Amino acid sequence: MFSTAGRCGALLAVVALMLVATVTPVALGTRVTTTKSGMGVDGFAYPKGIIRLTVKSTEKWQYQPDGIILPAASELQVEAAKEGNKWTLHNGDCALTVTSASPQLSFQFSCQGKPLVKATASDNVEALPEVNFTFPAARTMYGLAEHAADLPLRGDAVYEMYNTDAFQYPINSTKALYGAIPFIMAYSAAATSGVLFLNPSETSVRINSEDAAPSCRWQPEVGVVDLFFLPGPTPAKVQRQHASLTGATVMPPYFSLGYHQCRWNYMNTKDCLSVDEGFDQHNMPYDVLWLDIEHTDKKKYFTWDKYTFPDPKVLTTALASKGRKLVTVKDPHVKREGGFAMHEEASKGGYYVKDANGNDYEGECWPGRSSWPDFLNTRTRNWYAEFFHDDRYPGGGRDIHTWVDMNEPSIFNGDKGTMFKNAMHTLDDGHTVSHGTIHNAYSFYSIQAVYKGMVEAGGAKATPERPFILTRSFFPGSQRYAAMWTGDNMARWDHLENSVPELLSLSISNFPFCGCDVGGFFFDTEEELFVRWMQAGAFMPFFRGHAHLDTKRREPWSYSPASQPIIRNALALRYALIPYLYTNFYHAHTKGNTIMRPLFFEFPEQEKLREVQNTYLFGRAILVQPVAQKGATEVTVPLPAGTLWYNYFTGEMATGGTYTMPVDLNTIPMFLRGGHVVPMKLRLRRSTYAARLDPFTLFVALNAQGNSYGDLYCDDGTTFEYAKGSFVHRTFSFSESTLTSSSFTTDTPASNGVFAVANAVERVVVYGYSGKVSKVVLTTAHNAIDMATELDFEQVGATVIVRQPKVLVAADWFIAFENE
Ligand SMILES: *[C@@H]1O[C@H](CO)[C@@H](O)[C@H](O)[C@H]1NC(C)=O
Ligand SMILES: *[C@@H]1O[C@H](CO)[C@@H](O)[C@H](O)[C@H]1NC(C)=O
């Protein structure tokens, strides 16, 4: 992942290897043809039937972003069968035909003989790298994140991709936002496929009218045609194929799944400590306190304001004593101030992006006159990474993590709020390339540098820890290093409502670790909106409250006493779900799954769910529909057919179809999916650290056959040792009236038995039990002798609660229900 070798590189290689089990040697692609005007057409095959096709000049060098496609994604030899002006590239069950009929090249990607994608491009070197796509087997297109728009792509609209610092952005808009994933998923119940168009220049995609087969016109401004065709055939498979190319999500440090408290700005150490105290006084859990730009000495990052934060260790030590963390913002712009080490080194060392005249690029940002590191080259990334090292970052250490804002990059006096397109970057091989050519990928390289710096910060002798990084701007590959959030939203009901489709779009475009500013960044948040946003945030992979400098204080206890217990309930529910969420992240990280899943994605055979965008699966087993309407007294939830659903709070069972339920301010429409076990920690604590030894409650939601299955993954939450097998992974399965706890056996690598957990199970809750229970018997093995113990239980209707089995969550045991 990094071109420098060493501990960190080797370690990351282990992580990358986990994703793709077999690594065949890299073979070159196959030259399919060279067009009359000198365009080379090359084909490459990747595992799982994926085919890549590039069209670029054979005469002049052209930029292609480096390091985004995983090296572990091996290139297989393509068989090219020539037939006149038509060639067919085979890869397993899939094939790509290339037809050259000057001035046009046309492509058809088919799997098992079914045409999935048809595309046309120009064969002329002077033409734009434009491609028209049609998806003949599909019905609806999704993707092109990031947009504050509906989840399905809308016809007769142009989706812009040009990473930008969008100020007070409107919703239901296809204007460019902070990040770009040039990817489309084309769905129907019969066949879902995907296309990734790896070109980081300013791009617009016109979605044609919705009347015809889904089609679009994709227009990058410059650069090469570089297409990846993903065969599916299901949405979940397209997602995993996408992750096999650009990487699965980063494995989050455990604490980062807790609640984060941010504000522009917590003003000084005392203010911070009182916010921290406030959570404890109000019995509200949180894990991370954040510092925005004002904590620095005049917006020079990696420094501290000497009056407001004279000794940062006071703060980190106080937080760490409760197991909590600090995140500080480190934006990529560098203040041009004599004597500032970062600036002095950058200008002397030639680390800055250059303007068209070859001088350091200068622009205005938070600190005033600024320049930007040229993250496109390894030399600059290695230099920048050093600023995270413990010997360079005052007050640093493993309890401080990183927020990277403004990395589009945002430039106040630039062009479209960013760098002029004629600014120049220098690549490792010495080529220079204009900013316009690389723009959308700039933030990817900035985050690579941050990740490297943080992993190696403790020095060669320290055990590396997983960094937590939040990035505003992103491109494919950024998900390997960081979480993202949707930038500067507003405290409005429609922004709350739209945040779900926006995050779902990101989630199925391979950015699982996503969230939005809870409460809305701009403007004051009315109490009801704040409560609803905290409830929604509890079901977002990244959960952070944040607010603009001009807003009223908004810590979760700032509203009326009546709202406090409701907000506390939302926080408590989030914390209860973290073991389940972490388990889902492990699957996402190792297999390329995602976390938030639209209904069509999880139930692809039910095409009528394809427009649903406010109801979703949070992981595999929980369906949620956050309330986003002011004054709501009732909501209607579309429950997918063919599955039993259980109201989490009451155990009430519902079959598929629209489900109408009354809601008050305390209601979160949340359902357990029949057939799934959800491990939770129900005791209210101050932080994930404080809950680490707590016992589990296992929720067992039965399907129509009376079965259920689920798992629980635990590791140290901090280091990379899990990649060597230091974890505990358990399965819980319920069948024939018996709940069995056993080891999860199909991990690669398998557990090495080094890591242990001592948590007990304090409760088992079974939903949907059809018999009348007369006796519950626990069987454990002691020295190979089975011991049977009768357990306390209570049955109300179809809900059975078994109390205090007091078994270890990591031990083998079974609990059998006997009927009257
Ligand atoms: C794409 O389609 C448009 C019409 O919709 C056409 O004008 C354009 O030439 C096509 N481009 C390519 C590369 O096929
Ligand atoms: C968004 O705009 C489209 C028209 O472009 C419209 O069909 C759709 O209903 C709007 N969505 C919302 C949530 O308002």
TrEMBL record:
Residues 592-678 form the Glycosyl hydrolase family 31 C-terminal domain. InterPro entries: Gal_mutarotase_sf_dom, GH, Glyco_hydro_31_C, Glyco_hydro_31_N_dom, Glyco_hydro_31_TIM, Glyco_hydro_b. Residues 46-205 form the Glycoside hydrolase family 31 N-terminal domain. CDD domains: GH31_GANC_GANAB_alpha, GH31_N. Pathway: Glycan metabolism; N-glycan metabolism. Residues 250-583 form the Glycoside hydrolase family 31 TIM barrel domain. One of its GO terms (molecular function) is alpha-glucosidase activity. It comes from the Eukaryota. Its main location: endoplasmic reticulum. Residues 1-29 form the signal peptide. It is found in: Endoplasmic reticulum. Gene3D superfamilies: Glycosidases, glycosyl hydrolase (family 31), Golgi alpha-mannosidase II. GO terms for biological process: carbohydrate metabolic process; N-glycan processing. Keywords: Endoplasmic reticulum, Glycoprotein, Glycosidase, Hydrolase, Signal. Belongs to the glycosyl hydrolase 31 family. This is Glucosidase II subunit alpha. It comes from Leptomonas pyrrhocoris.
